[in-house]
């Protein structure tokens, strides 16, 4: 389905990315629309698949997931069977919060959150014991300068 965003749609998306808990009335006021018009726009954005659920962000430090690790993986295997097994294993590890197939020197990039280095090591061991991987390179994030930024709509 093709949906052409206009300035009101973009304003709604920007406002919801900042605070998805806004009431419909508050959202309508913030974007300068009537409540009914805003509701119809929200329904159209959901139907078009542009709005995909509502989530909230958690404070990682408060739930003791202070360590963020970016993991780059290189493999010799590119068969469909290996890929399906790899995906299944990676997606079964809840601490892996982002998972990308990438172009360049490496094949995959993961974003892992963990309590500390020992917890990350356990995740790493779980990964490599089940998957034949050629190279794994890990980078520990020192500071999140910009994390989970809103999309530029």
From TrEMBL:
Pfam families: AsnC_trans_reg, HTH_24. Gene3D superfamilies: 3.30.70.920, Winged helix-like DNA-binding domain superfamily/Winged helix DNA-binding domain (1.10.10.10). SMART domains: HTH_ASNC. Keywords: DNA-binding, Transcription, Transcription regulation. InterPro entries: ArsR-like_HTH, AsnC-type_HTH_dom, Dimeric_a/b-barrel, Tscrpt_reg_AsnC-like, Tscrpt_reg_AsnC/Lrp_C, Tscrpt_reg_HTH_AsnC-type_CS, WH-like_DNA-bd_sf, WH_DNA-bd_sf. The keyword Cell cycle does not apply. SUPFAM superfamilies: Dimeric alpha+beta barrel, Winged helix' DNA-binding domain. Residues 5-68 form the HTH asnC-type domain. The keyword Transcription regulation applies. This is Lrp/AsnC family transcriptional regulator. It comes from Acetobacter farinalis.
């Amino acid at each position: 389905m093709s949906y052409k965003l206009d300035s009101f749609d973009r304003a709604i998306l920007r406002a919801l990315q900042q605070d998805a808990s806004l009431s419909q009335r508050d959202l309508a006021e913030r974007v300068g629309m009537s409540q009914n018009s805003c509701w119809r726009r929200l329904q159209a954005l959901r139907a078009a698949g542009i709005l995909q659920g509502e989530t909230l962000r958690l404070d990682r430090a408060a739930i003791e997931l202070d360590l963020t690790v970016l993991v780059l993986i290189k493999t010799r295997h590119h068969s469909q069977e290996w890929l399906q097994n790899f995906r299944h294993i990676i997606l079964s590890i809840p601490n892996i919060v982002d998972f990308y197939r990438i172009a360049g020197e490496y094949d995959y990039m993961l974003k892992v959150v963990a309590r500390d280095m020992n917890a990350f090591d356990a995740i790493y061991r779980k990964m490599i014991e089940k998957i034949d991987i050629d190279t794994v390179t890990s980078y520990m994030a020192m500071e999140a300068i910009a994390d989970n930024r809103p999309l530029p709509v």
